[in-house]
Design brief:
The protein folds into two domains: 280 residues, no CATH class; 137 residues, no CATH class. 40% of the residues lie in helices and 22% in strands. It is built from 13 helices and 15 strands. Strands 3-4-5-8-9 form a five-stranded mixed β-sheet, with helices on both faces. A hairpin with a 5-residue loop joins strand 14 and strand 15. The longest helix is centred in the first third of the chain and has 26 residues.
Length: 450
């Protein structure tokens, strides 16, 4: 029974004997056992096995998340000139969608690893190497992207490097470097942040390690682009918190479903503790798969009021520039704030038959200004900019997000637009007027409990 540290689920009584193990252990052990047995019988198949294993892991992310990433710009197996060594280097997969950049370095290993039962140290060393190498390759690629305002990417065609795209790091709000493995490697992968040398890349992009099997579960529980990217955003925040233990990706997913911004809760707990461990949050995922009808049942998900669901669906459908930022802001609200916002939004929407345009501001650490308009009514850019600057002053924020929603006569959203405006400078000629309007709006503010 000597294996990686494992959650004990479930206990099995078989012919009077009791077995306690973890599902990932059974799956990972079987995979490598099949590899050993097959190569023992067909030693000439070794190169094909390694090639197919590599291809499977390298293409897993865009294939499994094909629906969520359908509109993304994808770069698979691209090359770049490493600014440190001057040599050509390769990254397995990069994807851009709006203001999000995902980088995936796939690691499968080329040989069956030593058994933990006979050589635990060697087994652990092999796992460490796979995780750390993926991190180092993500780091090398991000350092390259940040070395210029615009970094070219190349494909190798007939021994020549042909440019196939360019990436501007400054365009991205969210950058997630991911190390992807064929085995789960729990809890080592979940706790990779504790390994020496693994720190947020460029001091701000935390590294996430997960397995191909994790992707299948995430795909079922996070079927939309907005859900997937918000989960990855929260997951990355958790990966940046030292001394915080969640056993595996399923525990992270369960914590997200039941607690949403669980990373913020953990940070609050660490104010009063030197180390925090969460467990049993994966139960919501396990219980779903325990059902005989799991393939036809909807997967558990976070709860949203219907009014907010309509807005999130409209963002996903219309996908205006900057929509993922606004989507993330709405999904980051706690449950009471979601309910309060939905009620307020519904009440304001009901007045559109009498008013062509309505506007209100949702405050907090990341304020969001809402414009509700009758279909065909278009507020001018100057009007929107002015009210955006007022919102910055009222909330004492450097920037404020803006969400425009257009409704038809049936109260259905027919168009969506997003924007972001910056705080005005004190030397602006209308600064005093803007500040006066900000104070007036503050006197009329309502606490929604964001």
């Amino acid at each position: 029974m000597r294996t990686l540290p494992a959650l004990i689920k479930p206990g099995i009584n078989l012919d009077g004997e009791y077995y306690f193990t973890d599902g990932q252990f059974v799956r990972d052990a079987c995979y490598r056992t099949i590899q050993r047995g097959l190569l023992r019988r067909l030693p000439t198949y070794r190169e094909d096995w390694n090639r197919r294993q590599r291809d499977l892991v390298e293409h897993a992310f865009p294939v499994i998340f094909g629906q969520q990433l359908a509109a993304a710009e994808k770069y698979s197996g691209v090359f770049f000139k490493d600014p440190k060594s001057g040599q050509w280097a390769e990254t397995d997969f990069a994807m851009t969608l709006g203001d999000v950049l995902l980088i995936v370095e796939a690691k499968a290993g080329v040989m069956a690893m030593a058994s933990p039962a006979t050589n635990f140290d060697r087994h652990e060393r092999a796992i460490r190497d796979l995780i750390v190498k993926a991190y180092e390759q993500c780091k090398r690629f991000l350092e390259y992207l940040s070395s210029a305002d615009e970094a070219p990417l190349y494909k190798r065609i007939d021994d020549e490097f042909v440019e196939v795209g360019r990436i501007r790091m400054g365009n991205f709000r969210l950058v997630v470097p991911i190390g992807l493995t064929v085995e789960a490697f729990t809890p080592f992968s979940a706790m990779s942040k504790e390994l020496a040398g693994i720190r947020p890349i460029l001091a701000k992009h935390a590294f996430v390690s997960m397995s191909v099997d994790d992707l299948f579960v995430l795909n079922r529980f996070l079927p939309t682009t907005g859900e997937l990217f918000h989960y990855l955003e929260v997951r990355q925040q958790a990966a940046a918190i030292p001394k915080a233990m969640l056993f595996d990706e399923i525990e992270h997913l369960g914590a997200y479903i039941t607690n949403n911004r669980f990373d913020m809760t953990i940070k609050e707990q660490l104010d009063d503790a030197s180390w925090v461990a969460w467990d049993s949050f994966g139960d919501v995922v396990d219980k779903y798969f325990e059902s005989d009808a799991w393939e036809t049942l909807p997967a558990p998900c976070q709860s949203y009021p219907s009014e907010l669901i309509v807005v999130l669906q409209a963002l996903e459908t219309h996908r205006p520039k900057g929509w993922l930022d606004v989507d993330s802001q709405l999904r980051s609200l706690n449950s009471s704030a979601r309910e309060n916002l939905a009620e307020f939004l519904e009440n304001v929407r009901a007045t559109l038959s009498k008013h062509a345009v309505r506007r209100f501001l949702l405050g907090g650490d990341n304020p969001l200004q809402f414009w509700l308009c009758q279909s065909g009514i278009e507020p001018s850019f100057e009007e929107m900019r002015r009210h955006g600057e007022v919102a910055c002053l009222a909330t004492k924020s450097a920037t404020v997000g803006v969400l425009n929603l257009w409704y038809d006569a049936n109260d259905e959203i027919v168009n969506v637009a997003c924007a972001r405006f910056s705080r005005p400078t004190a030397i602006q000629s209308d600064y005093a007027e803007l500040m006066g309007e900000a104070k007036r709006q503050l006197d009329r503010s309502i606490d929604l409990g964001t």
